[in-house]
Structures are given as C-alpha cells and as structure tokens.
Design brief:
With about 220 residues, this protein is α/β, with parallel strands linked by helices. The protein contains 5 helices and 6 strands, in the order βαββααβαβαβ. It is about 35% helix and about 15% strand. Strand 4, helix 4 and strand 5 form a beta-alpha-beta unit.
Length: about 220
C-alpha cells in the first residue's frame, strides 16, 4: 500500500486589533499541539495576514521537517532532530501570533494574503495541504469592510473576480478557520462569502472547519 504524501501545513495569523489577546494565546496553544504532530519531511509554514494589499512585504516563514537518514525506519538521532526542529518551529510561529506591538496595524487583508498562500501551494505540489487560518474573517480594507457588514462584496463579486483572473489558485487546499463567529445573521453572511470564495478557488472549507475556539485543531480535516 503506497504511503500518504507528506503534508504542507500553513498557519496564518490575524493580528489586527479586533482580535483579543486571549484569542491569539489560544492560537499559539493550538498551533503548538498541531506542530508537534508533524512527521519527517512534512512542510511547515506560517505567515501574518497582510494589512492593506499585496504591495506590502509579507511576514512569513517556511521550512521542511528534517527527513529520516534511513527511510525504512527511524533511528534515535532522527527522532531527536525532528523534535528539536518542531520545538523551534513552535517558538517561531508563536512570534507570528504575538499580541504585542499591534498599534500600527492598519487593516486586515485576507484576500491579498491568500494570493501568498497560493504561491506556497504552487511551490510544493504533491503535498496534502492544510491551512489553519486564525482570524475573525472580517476583511477590512479601503474597498471591503466586513465589520458590521459596512461594505460587503456585492452579489457576483467572486464570479467576476474569477472571470477577471483576480483569484488565487487554491486547488486541493483544506481550509480550517479558527476565530470566526457563526451565531448572528451578520456572521452567517460573512461565512457564506468565504465558503463561496474558497469553493471557487478550488479549496475546501466545510461547516465543521469554520469555528470560533476549538479545543484542538483537526488533523486530516478534509478527509
């Protein structure tokens, strides 16, 4: 029986001032547990949400978990190298979810950030790709302001963006959203937009993977 392909696991963090400190701390805790479950040769990455556009310099990091020296079985130094790498990765990713120094954040550009996610997918084909997106999912830029539904994308926005070639290719990506509410009509409207968006870009976002504060992150979330 063939082995499963390696994973590509991306952690994306919303550090905007609308995100409470305790929510970022939960993101750090959930990230730590999930990272330590990764195996040799899996790919691991993290990034902060852009604020206003793709013109910004991204804050992101990615690296491969050390592979085994002998592919047939694991030796002690392989195990030690894996654990050391993953512990260091937890520290690095924790910095991307830091609740400090957020006064200068001017927006929340989920849509532009997803173009960078698409580039990560293109760079590593053949992997089982999962993105854990820690955000309230409220796009907040000059063009779209989802807070309070102030300026929502009009009907047909996603279809027109696809026709104009303005959407990233996220085919095969499993999306897990953490930090988004679903308990109000406004929250349901925001959720419906993102479900349409991800379906159109080729990603998978199921109802159970759109949540506020889970106890742990799902593994093989779209299996």
């Amino acid at each position: 029986m063939p082995e499963d392909p390696p994973e590509l696991v991306l952690f994306v963090y919303d550090r905007s001032t609308s995100i409470p400190n305790h929510t970022l701390e939960l993101a750090r805790q959930l990230t730590s547990t999930r990272v330590m479950e990764l195996d040799h040769a899996d790919l691991l990455g993290g990034m902060e949400l852009l604020q206003l556009s793709l013109a910004e310099e991204p804050t992101r990091w990615s690296q491969q978990v050390p592979a085994r020296e002998i592919t047939e079985h694991e030796i002690m130094r392989d195990s030690v190298a894996r654990v050391r790498f993953l512990r260091d990765a937890v520290i690095l990713l924790g910095r991307l979810a830091s609740p400090t120094d957020r006064d200068n954040i001017n927006g929340t550009d989920i849509l532009s950030t997803l173009h960078d996610v698409g580039e990560e997918l293109r760079a590593y084909p053949g992997h089982r790709a999962t993105m854990y997106l820690f955000s309230d999912m409220l796009q907040s830029t000059r063009e779209i302001e989802m807070e309070g539904l102030r300026v929502m994308p009009p009907d047909g926005w996603v279809a027109r963006a696809k026709e104009g070639g303005r959407l990233p290719n996220l085919r095969g990506l499993c999306v897990v959203v953490v930090g988004a509410r679903v308990d109000t009509p406004a929250a349901q409207r925001v959720k419906a937009f993102w479900q349409e968006y991800f379906e159109t870009t080729g990603a998978t976002l199921t109802d159970q993977n759109y949540m506020l504060r889970p106890v742990r992150l799902p593994v093989d979330a779209c299996a």
